[in-house]
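Dear H.,

Thanks for agreeing to be a second pair of eyes. The structure we're designing against is below in token form, covering all 306 positions.
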């Protein structure tokens, strides 16, 4: 689906016209994937539009930059304001917000520390990534033949642009084979995550999810699910999981800022449970939407008004 263009993009400290937010073709990050980014959502709430866990996303942004020795030339407060400004100034009621910092134009070659760091924050209206039908009725996933990058190959726990070529391969393979999403295994063959989502399964009323040792991104939606599970009295266990564990599972679901909370009803042609979204998945979804839409007092601090 084409990007729904709006009017302004925050580009190195200024709001510029959407079509003027351009870089040189010899931008370092374009050639070598030397960028870090975030994906954040703003939701329409009763108290106006608010960004969900904005500060937590920005903290991860700085963590990602640290791994690549990238000094972001703006403070967290400045970027927080930039994220809010692109929603506000473009008149968006709800939005997907994309901050990105990348090594810019200056030097080529693999040592990036002499290249400038450019920072951009864009926002646009983006429906749920795996579709409303997926949210309602669940998706079919396929184990990818491409393994998730090992934590000692590229630190997968941070969001660097270059590492996403791994996810792109898995996503293409799954889509061509007729599935909605890929599930990648780690280098040991344990389930890691989707191409852009964390994954969970439920068995005997306990939620299981792979740990950070499996090369996952520490998802903010994943962390939100941990809080919800505690509130509804369901235990969460982080441990190694095989794909066979998922074939036996009663329920499964994926989480991510773009995808939100999506039931998984089939994996590698095996029905999960009875092949319908399960009750714990439904409860987690319900609580998640209450939180992001500002209907939960307990988590109102996670919503930052624009
Ligand atoms: C590879 C990968 N895993 C997991 C996630 C979910 O993370 P979050 O819930 O913070 O969006 C994302 C999306 O950002 C992702 O790209």
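And this is the sequence the design step returned. I haven't edited it by hand at all.
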């Amino acid at each position: 689906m084409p990007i729904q263009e709006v009017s302004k993009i925050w580009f190195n400290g200024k709001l510029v016209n959407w079509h003027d937010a351009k870089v040189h073709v010899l931008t370092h990050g374009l050639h070598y994937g030397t960028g870090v980014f975030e994906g954040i959502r703003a939701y329409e709430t009763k108290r106006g539009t608010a960004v969900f866990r904005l500060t937590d996303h920005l903290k991860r942004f700085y963590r990602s930059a640290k791994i690549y020795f990238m000094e972001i030339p703006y403070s967290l407060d400045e970027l927080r304001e930039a994220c809010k400004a692109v929603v506000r100034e473009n008149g968006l009621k709800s939005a997907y917000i994309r901050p990105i910092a990348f090594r810019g134009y200056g030097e080529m070659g693999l040592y990036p520390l002499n290249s400038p760091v450019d920072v951009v924050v864009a926002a646009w209206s983006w429906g749920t990534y795996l579709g409303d039908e997926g949210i309602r009725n669940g998706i079919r996933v396929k184990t990818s033949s491409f393994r998730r990058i090992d934590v000692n190959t590229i630190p997968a726990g941070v969001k660097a642009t270059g590492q996403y070529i791994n996810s792109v391969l898995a996503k293409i393979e799954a889509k061509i084979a007729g599935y909605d999403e890929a599930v990648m295994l780690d280098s040991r063959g344990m389930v890691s995550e989707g191409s852009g989502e964390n994954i969970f399964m439920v068995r005997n009323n306990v939620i299981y999810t792979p740990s950070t040792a499996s090369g996952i991104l520490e998802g903010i939606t994943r962390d939100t699910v941990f809080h919800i599970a505690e509130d509804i009295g369901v235990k969460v266990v982080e441990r190694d999981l095989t794909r066979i564990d998922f074939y036996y599972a009663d329920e499964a679901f994926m989480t991510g800022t773009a995808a939100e909370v999506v039931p998984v009803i089939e994996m590698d042609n095996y029905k999960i449970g009875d092949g319908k979204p399960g009750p714990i998945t439904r409860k987690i979804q319900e609580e998640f939407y209450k939180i992001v839409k500002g209907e939960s007092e307990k988590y109102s601090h996670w919503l930052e008004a624009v």
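Two observations from my side: Residues 39, 167, 193, 196-198, 217, 219-222, 255-257 surround pyridoxal-5'-phosphate (CB under 6 Å). The CA atoms of residues 129 and 259 lie 5 Å apart.

Warmly,
E.
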